[in-house]
């Protein structure tokens, strides 16, 4: 069996965290568009934060995507002979966090484009249509890989999954005393 060179889970976690940090900075900068702080310096800040977030997403994508592709082709135990051991939970968690981050970045990019159209400035747009399309492509690819990944793996045994109904609390209220339970003030 072919041995894969996979990233350390700690490295993936750091990259996803960096994506979240850059996303937060981009979001904060974008919120200033159309306010009293809006100007050329804010638009430069939005553009810089957007580029940094784009780079963080690309860097994380270059690590997470091969991981998801490899796990979609081979069973989870194919790393037995390697020094790195990944569990299904780690893969799912990192993949889900990253997909959520990319989805939130896409929403913020679209919001930035709309805000810049609503409040035009003499500067170039901070986010281009090509950047939005690139992030949409990354998100589609990741979502498709996750879908394939979970549809090709073993399905959980439905016999083990049980839903236990919650006990209802006993109510001491009768229809006659409903009005006494309400607190109203006409003062």
TrEMBL record:
<dbReference type="GO" id="GO:0044297">
    <property type="term" value="C:cell body"/>
</dbReference>
<dbReference type="GO" id="GO:0043005">
    <property type="term" value="C:neuron projection"/>
</dbReference>
<keyword id="KW-0734">Signal transduction inhibitor</keyword>
<dbReference type="InterPro" id="IPR026512">
    <property type="entry name" value="RGS7BP/RGS9BP"/>
</dbReference>
<dbReference type="GO" id="GO:0009968">
    <property type="term" value="P:negative regulation of signal transduction"/>
</dbReference>
<comment type="similarity">
    <text>Belongs to the RGS7BP/RGS9BP family.</text>
</comment>
<protein>
    <submittedName>
        <fullName>CRE-RSBP-1 protein</fullName>
    </submittedName>
</protein>
